[in-house]
Design a protein that fits this description.
Length: about 325
């Protein structure tokens, strides 16, 4: 991601530069736009709007937290951690920002540090008498990263208790289950979400992602078609459509996300090495036919899922080493 997006924030205690805003476009306008984009899964535009709001008001805690969450969901984890730490340094002992820092640390695999930051956020919130559902949502995400599913579910429940009958919060919890590699739990909420927000394209897309990871290609295709019908010329759908038709089913299941580094390595290997030959294309077609059933089998036997993850990790590592060696020789 380009550094100049946040270039103006490279300061210590200096005020943010004055922004010449068009009439009516102050920090509140940009935050409102960011919220709308965020709920439609348009994290890049949401990130830009949050950044714009900070040009007008440096102390907009929601905007600092919002841009960290966008970066996490865009899988730009180094930047998420960097900006979370920058926010906490600028505004220490702020529960919302400590909680976002915890979420970024969990996404980076630093689960112990994440839980400590989440503890601190909840402690500061209790002292201040605050009841922010974000703190419980992100606590749940940290616990999920530590494979503490029952406790994570309790925290997600606490977040929803603070926002009862709110489909937007149902969506936030759904996204965390999906990001945490629990598509079955996520699908339960996705089914509720499309009933409550049938006009929201992102709700259908989330349901398609859940169904795809659970080895339900036909249902996923139907959900994706609904998403596309609701949002014509949606930039994301062409990429989603490509992934839908040529998914790394098993790798996506065991690593929890199609953007996981090992999944990307294995997909590149398949596309670059298999798809250029008739035999490779035939093998890929056979894989696409059989993989959904294999995924169902792996879901039924979690130890085998762990074994598959271990095997594919070693394969991806070997492929990356071979690629690095190849490019090293060429240079």
């Amino acid at each position: 991601m380009s550094e100049d997006r946040f270039q103006w924030l490279e300061f210590e205690n200096q005020p943010a530069p004055a922004a010449a805003a068009p009439a009516g476009k102050d920090q509140h306008f940009y935050v409102a736009e960011a919220r709308k984009a965020y709920l439609e899964g348009d994290y890049e535009p949401a990130l830009r709007h949050y950044s714009e709001s900070l040009k007008h008001e440096k102390a907009m805690h929601e905007s600092w937290a919002g841009q960290v969450r966008c970066l996490v969901y865009m899988h730009e984890l180094h930047e998420a951690k960097t900006w979370a730490e920058k926010a906490c340094n600028l505004f220490p002992e702020t529960p919302l920002l400590e909680s976002c820092r915890a979420r970024a640390l969990a996404a980076c695999g630093l689960v112990g540090d994440a839980l400590s930051a989440s503890d601190k956020a909840l402690e500061h919130a209790e002292k201040a008498g605050l009841a922010d559902p974000h703190l419980w949502l992100e606590r749940g995400a940290c616990l999920l990263a530590n494979r503490q599913m029952p406790t994570a579910q309790h925290c997600f429940g606490k977040a929803l208790e603070l926002r009862p009958n709110d489909p937007d919060w149902l969506q936030r919890v759904l996204v965390e289950w999906l990001e945490g590699g629990q598509p079955a739990k996520a699908l339960e909420l996705a089914n509720q979400l499309v009933e409550q927000r049938p006009e929201r394209a992102y709700a259908w897309l989330l349901r398609a992602q859940c169904q795809r990871r659970l080895g339900q290609p036909k249902r996923a295709e139907e959900s994706l078609t609904r998403a596309e019908a609701l949002r014509v010329n949606w930039e994301a759908t062409s990429e989603e459509r490509r992934l839908m038709r040529r998914s790394c089913w098993i790798a996506t299941l065991v690593f929890g996300h199609e953007a996981a580094p090992a999944v990307l390595t294995l997909r590149a290997w398949r596309d670059d090495c298999w798809m250029g030959h008739p035999l490779g294309r035939a093998l890929a077609a056979g894989y696409d036919r059989s993989a959904p059933a294999v995924c169902q089998w792996l879901l039924a036997y979690p130890p085998l899922c762990g074994l598959a993850r271990w095997t594919l990790t070693r394969l991806a590592r070997r492929l990356r080493s071979r690629e690095e060696s190849h490019y090293g020789k060429k240079t």
